[in-house]
Design goal:
Layout: E1 2-7, H1 11-21, E2 27-33, H2 36-46, E3 50-53, H3 62-72, E4 77-81, H4 90-97, E5 101-104, H5 114-128, E6 151-155, E7 164-169, H6 173-182, E8 192-196, H7 203-211, E9 218-220, E10 232-234, E11 240-243, E12 249-252, H8 264-275, E13 279-283, H9 292-300, E14 304-308, H10 318-324, E15 330-332, H11 337-344, E16 350-354, E17 362-363
């Protein structure tokens, strides 16, 4: 049974959600609360595996509640609210605070397809029950953590000059990208191309959110555009991002690969084809296998491949498949990926900062 705590200031909404989730035999609603303060008191006693919370509530709203939970009783949180409709600036503030996912609650919940609503909520809860979450310091301002002064270790020099970095991510990806981009230098000397699995109409808000912390400009890639050094590009919604023979971006509406469009694998394959050993692939947290074959293409071309480790991944799916394929040269905890990328681009050889003896670069033999 997946133990779920529901938090919403509307008794009607709580009743409806409880009834809908009762249709799933593997889900048990163990408690309800009308505000964040009440819910926070219940968490250590009810020990829910997943929390579903509204955003706007009296006494303590959902944002502060999430921060308190992740600082004291970390567990997967799904925000179910009308305040997370596509285009809302709230979405990534909630993810930054520690929520794993959001679900846009219908404004007229009494007049919707209840079967569809029950199915979608149960599906999301099942996924969240299997994710790994981390304790977070309660930082209401959401400022990125400072880099730690630490003992350096040597980072191998790439075989050829790096020309492009491609980063792929799915579930937990926005938070992981936030961590990486916040800690890259403004002088990063090559283009970075990101492919994030994300719902329609959410990408623009994510780009805006990442621009707030990234020293590098972040924007969507455009068809025919030549990638520029020191710029972070995102594959647009519902289009594969490739590179033509001149190294310019080429958008494609070809069929999804591994159920995804944009596909991480397609972009990584394009980078490997265009830049050979000058391509770097980074595969972050996410479900499924997208990106694994792309990492294999970069590795076969002689490029560098990095996978996020299991301990720091929300879902260790995509990186795990890449590791099992033998396509990963380095496995790193999330907080070491930005220093590793910076180190690889050192003119002579890289120096990777190490925060402690447990967080170190490991090569897959």
């Amino acid at each position: 049974m997946i133990r779920v705590l529901l938090v919403d200031d509307s008794p009607i909404v709580l009743h409806i959600l409880q009834r809908l989730l009762s249709r799933s035999p593997e889900i048990q609603v163990v408690g309800t609360a009308a505000d964040g303060r009440e819910a926070l008191e219940l968490v250590p006693y009810l020990n829910p595996e997943v929390i579903c919370t509204d955003l706007y509530m009296p006494v303590m709203d959902g944002l502060e509640f999430i921060r308190e939970v992740m600082a004291n009783y970390p567990r997967p949180i799904l925000v179910v609210s009308v305040a997370v409709e596509p285009g809302s600036p709230n979405i990534f503030r909630l993810l930054e605070a520690g929520a794993v996912d959001v679900y846009s609650k219908p404004r007229d919940i009494l007049n919707v397809d209840m079967d569809k609503l029950a199915h979608e909520l149960a599906h999301k809860i099942r996924i969240l029950a299997g994710v790994h979450v981390f304790r977070r310091k309660n930082n209401a301002r959401g400022t990125p953590a400072a880099k730690l002064a630490s003992k350096p270790i040597i980072m191998p020099r790439p075989q050829t000059p790096v020309r492009m970095v491609v980063i792929g991510a799915s579930t937990g990806g926005p938070q992981a990208l936030h961590e990486i981009l916040a800690h890259l230098p403004a002088t990063f000397p090559v283009p970075i191309v990101c492919v994030q699995h994300i719902g329609s109409n959410f990408l623009s808000e994510m780009v805006t959110w990442l621009n707030e912390v990234s020293p590098l400009p972040v924007r969507k890639a455009a068809h025919g555009e030549t990638p520029q050094a020191g710029v972070v590009y995102f594959a647009p919604e519902d289009a594969h991002l490739e590179l033509d023979d001149g190294g310019r971006f080429a958008l494609s509406l070809a069929a999804p690969l591994d159920c995804h469009r944009p596909s991480v694998t397609i972009t990584m394959r394009a980078a490997a084809h265009c830049f050979g050993a000058g391509a770097v692939g980074v595969l972050l947290t996410g479900m499924g296998r997208d990106g694994a074959e792309g990492m294999a293409s970069i590795a076969a071309a002689g490029g560098i491949t990095i996978a996020q480790d299991e301990a720091s991944s929300v879902i260790y799916g995509m990186p795990k498949v890449a590791v099992e394929l033998g396509a990963v040269l380095h496995i790193l905890p999330l907080e070491q990926i930005a220093p590793a990328l910076e180190a690889m681009l050192n003119a002579e050889f890289g120096v990777l900062n190490k925060s402690n003896a447990e967080l170190r670069m490991r090569s897959v033999e």
